[in-house]
Amino acid sequence: MPNSALAVRGPQGHRIFRLYHLYRLVIGVVLVLLVSANLDSELLELAHVPLFRGASWVYLTLNILVALTLHTPNRLLPVFAVALGDVMLLSALFYAGGGTPSGIGNLLIVSVAISNILLRGRFGVLIAAAAAIGMIYLTFYLSLRHPQVSAQYVQVGALGALCFAAALFVQGVTRRLQASESLAEQRAADVADLETLNNLILQRMRTGILVVDEQRRVLLANQSALGLLDQQNLAGKILDPHCTELVKRLQHWHENSSMRPASLQTLDDGPTLQPSFIPLQRGGQRHILILLDDISQIAQQAQQLKLVALGRLTAGIAHEIRNPLGAISHAAQLLQESEDLQGPDLRLAQIIQDHSRRMNLIIENVLQLSRRRQAEPQLLDLKYWLHRFAAEFRSTAPASKVLHLAIEGSSIQTRMDPNQLNQVITNLVQNGLRHSAKLNPQGQVWLKLFRDPRSDLPVLEVLDDGEGVPADQLHHIFEPFYTTENKGTGLGLYISRELCESNQAHLHYQSREGGGACFRITFAHPRKMS
Length: 530
Fold this sequence. Notes:
Distance between the termini: 64 Å
Strand order of the largest sheet: 6-8-9-11-10
Keywords: Membrane, Phosphoprotein, Transmembrane, Transmembrane helix
Number of strands: 11
Pfam family, one: HisKA
Largest sheet: 5 strands, mixed
Oligomer: single chain
Shape: rod-shaped
Structural class: alpha+beta
Order of helices and strands: HHHHHHHEEHHEEHHEHEEHEEHEE
Catalytic activity: ATP + protein L-histidine = ADP + protein N-phospho-L-histidine
InterPro entries: HATPase_C_sf, HATPase_dom, His_kinase_dom, HisK_dim/P_dom, HisK_dim/P_sf, Sig_transdc_His_kin-like_C
Number of domains: 4
Mean pLDDT: 81
Strand content: 5-15%
EC number: 2.7.13.3
Low-confidence stretches: none
């Protein structure tokens, strides 16, 4: 017989089956106690005393064995056999107890109802039919020996009808409960799927999301927020010690929620973040939703637009500027060659020459930005490439400029345009040598190549022993046209960072222990295509 005839399965079916065992054991114990105390003859009008007493012991013994051996209603046949056996034994007790006056017919109705919770359809109705037929047939057989029993036919018929009514009613209620349970499970599954989808979307969002309570305890943080704040896990932690700048913006927002919060930068080389705060009410508790947007790309795009416009403007007027600039430079050169000029006049002519060259260099750099070609990344072995770069640099550098090279590990690869990498490293090395020579008789720069132990990405550090970058200038050194030198254009570091970004590398500055500067390039993974 198919197991689909079982009406209730799983944990709920196991509980009902255990209750069915307990119900039968309680009846068996009560009957055996009556028999053992000889109260059965006093309380009941027994038609067959030996049969009643023997059936009581058999009923208890069999139910104990069934309860010990059959624990779960996973198969139809054992459940059906238990229900049918229970009905047959109770029918025998019904006969031995004298029919309807014994009250055992009511126990049969309860057994039929419980069995129809476990069985569905015709199998449950079959149990009800067995109970009804058993009571009617045994009443007829009992009336042959005891004519006064003939008056019980109406009661027996009513009990039989109640068996069918109980079976049909319980099956109907069970079907409705199962439909409601299935609908609830489906709704719960839909809610769980929707929650999983929402969590997935939340974790994949590029906007950082934090939810904190009134004590600034983090209730929720997605992966973007953890990455932007450079944290591993914030759930359940107080936000204050992990991001003091963000807490300050939150306090300012509490004081005046109409003002736009100021942007912040949690790391020296990290992105610029724009926080937004939204109040939430959940179950009478006040929470704060914090949105963190990375505005570095927006600022970079604005900077690009500015430089493109500047490049177009410069390209348009370069010819007009270069012609008079060339004439001024040529005239100053002729003046310097004159024998009539004295020392102060020669100095003025030299100043004209220097500033003419500087203006021409500025025009060249801006034109280079406007005409910069797209990067063409190639798979590079940085160890081999740096050895070759150092050899070429040393072959042309004067003795007062020294380049040191330190490489950790064997082969370290990345993807980058070799020409643009050469331009970046040359610019950083020349800057380092220039600043190192200001404090030392010999300018020195160290190139240190290694793998970052946290990200496993290639890292190149360009170090010098110069004066370093003052703290008040750190946020400006990569801005275009920002320079602290009279002869500088302020475009070298900006161009270097732009070239790195176009190759999915990142250039930033960090202070060096013991003095000096350290410009650090974090390269892209070699398998990452640009």
